[in-house]
Amino acid sequence: MAEKGSVIGCHTIAQWNRQLQLASESGKLVVVDFTSSWCGPCRMIAPFFAELANKFTDAIFLRVDVNELKRVALDCAIETLPTFIFLRQGNIVDRVVGARKDLLPKKIELHMRN
């Protein structure tokens, strides 16, 4: 597990599965940024996502490049980039589509309480 307040890059299925397992064991909210190197809005929101990881240290923040982990992106029904999904116990509980700086912190706060 990475340091609190950091964004963990998942580059293999094994890394992805390990992070989900750790999150399930801890009961923490997982916030996943589905991104790609060619996506301008993804690059724009990345520093903000890192700021959110520093602010909400009781959640786990993951980054998945859809080109590296196509199977994960398909399994999570990612159709637009960036897309952020919120997971609890391995289940998707919410999502934000687009670089929505206004909505991301609100959704994190909402799901941290639940």
Automatic annotation (TrEMBL):
Signal peptide: none annotated. InterPro entries: Thioredoxin-like_sf, Thioredoxin_CS, Thioredoxin_domain, Thioredoxin_H-type-like. Residues 1-114 form the Thioredoxin domain. This is (wild Malaysian banana) hypothetical protein.
